[in-house]
Amino acid sequence: MNEDTIRLVVIGRMLRRRWRLLAALAVVGALVGYGASLVVFPPRYTTTASVLLPGQWEERELLTEVDIATSSTVLDLAADKLRWAGVSGTDLKDQVVAKAADGNIIKISGTADTPKHSQQLSDRTAEQFVGFAKQIAGGSADSEAATQRAALRKQVEAANRRISDLAQAADPGQTVEGVEARTSLEKLRTSLEEAMTKLDQAAPASNTAGMVVMGPAVRPTGEAAPTRVQLIAGGALVFFLLAVIGHLAAARMNRRPRTEREIATALGADLIGTVDVPDDRHAHRAEGGGARTRIGRLLGTDVRWDTPAPQRSGDEAGRRVRYRRVCARLRDRSPGPQRLLAIVPEGDHVAHRAAGQLVAEATSGASTGSASGGHPLLRLLPVSVDRPMVPDRATESGALIVVSAGNWTTAELSGIARACADGGHEVVGLVVADPVLARPASPADHPPHHAAPAPAVHSHATGGSA
């Protein structure tokens, strides 16, 4: 899979074989999310109070009012009104948010640990904002500007009196010139009054004085995001996705030889043949009862997920033919009686079963004899891949390595080959064991009575299948 594109079939195979582990990690993620909802993100509630600003306001003026609403002075006043134990205006800085909305409305949102506190925070902050804004408008009115407006009003009043005098002094008759003069004077008077009215309405103090809170804030009925349910679901989803990505990344980076040619190259040996081993995962699962083994069996990590499903094989007789052909090739390579080590990496259960069957077939062939002197005798020897050790050459004159594909790295296989060379054993060949799905056994598939069954093989035997 290391060079293949990750396909949906690969993900489906991973979900089928590792669903227990993925489910366990999702539960762990949910617990982490629940813990975060208690410690890092406790339940919070948010509500909003609205303040109306009458008149005409420019955008920069609205932004100024927003800054005033969240200023330290307003928050300190709100904290004094709330009288919450141990809560000051500085503590409220992260709990109050203000923003300008359409229609000259300032929305003040308060976030607290309970719906009641959230409502109180929004209402008190809005009230103190309006009061403080009015105080600023009243206390900071420019006296010079006020004097100038008063003087301007007096001048307007004087101009109105002068207009009245001119209107009376105009031709009292009903001539066209007199009517036009009085009409022009009245228009001038009206324009002056309208200008003064607009000037008064545009005064910031007048607009600020008209601020009003548009009713109390609504008490919230639900938590603010992220809610506890969102944190639990998010934690489960994040852990699940990380587990899936981790599995795919590990499979992508896997550089273990998977083909017969790659394994033969890593060992520096010739391929003698490939044998089929009925896939019986429950057989080796029963071996060992440690806590780590039981946990791996429970979570399904004791079975590799990144290998394709075993292919369906033929009957028992067809599988035995493959073993006999391997033994025959070994006999042809070294005519005459010969003793060989059948080396199997420790933990390779498929290869161990294949080697045991090879030992049985070789023993059966040697006992029946042949024109060429019979099959070589094999002794099964499990070897650790971490620190491979092969005994020095004595009665055995070579080594036959039996492995399954995709379980060992190139370095591990090369280590086994070097251990054979250090012990003076020539690697006479390689046998690759493939797990297959066996068909239900029928009477015709059973071996004949004269065939020797596969015995229990121990590594300390000196020869044959002891």
TrEMBL record:
Metal-binding is among the record's keywords: no
Low complexity composition-biased segments: 451-466
Compartment annotation: Cell membrane
Keyword tags: Cell membrane, Membrane, Transmembrane, Transmembrane helix
Record bears the keyword Membrane: yes
One GO term describing the cellular component: plasma membrane
Membrane association type: Multi-pass membrane protein
A Pfam family annotated for this UniProt entry: Wzz
Domain Polysaccharide chain length determinant N-terminal: 5-64
TM regions (residue ranges): 21-41, 231-251
Top-level taxon in the UniProt lineage: Bacteria
Region (Disordered): 439-466
Chief localisation class: membrane
Family: Belongs to the CpsC/CapA family.
Protein name: Wzz/FepE/Etk N-terminal domain-containing protein
Source organism of this protein record: Streptomyces tabacisoli
